[in-house]
């Protein structure tokens, strides 16, 4: 089981599989949502050193302690997919 509780001094590195028809990767949009589901900020997704993966780097120092959701949306020729990943930031 993955632990999803982090200190404000941590930096998250999230890698997600990203592939589409014909080898074309989908466009990813990544947002941090607060507990109420409101978008707080957008994060860039860049190609990972591993094939067919994108990575998102996220410093936590600017977030107050609390619960958050990382919303990852992939849009490509095959349509759209969305993944929500909850995590907690501690003091």
Describe this entry's structure for a reader:
By secondary structure, the chain is mainly beta. It has one domain: Sandwich (Immunoglobulin-like), CATH 2.60.40.1220. It is 0% helix and 59% strand. The chain has no helices and eight strands. It has strands at residues 5-7, 11-17, 27-33, 39-43, 46-47, 53-59, 66-76, 79-90. It has a five-stranded mixed beta sheet with strand order 1-8-7-3-4, with no helix packed on it. Strand 7 (66-76) and strand 8 form a beta hairpin. The protein is globular. The two termini are 23 Å apart. The model has no long low-confidence stretch (mean pLDDT 89).
Q: Which terms summarize this structure?
A:
91 residues; mainly beta; Immunoglobulin-like; five-stranded mixed sheet; three-stranded antiparallel sheet; 8 strands; 59% strand; globular
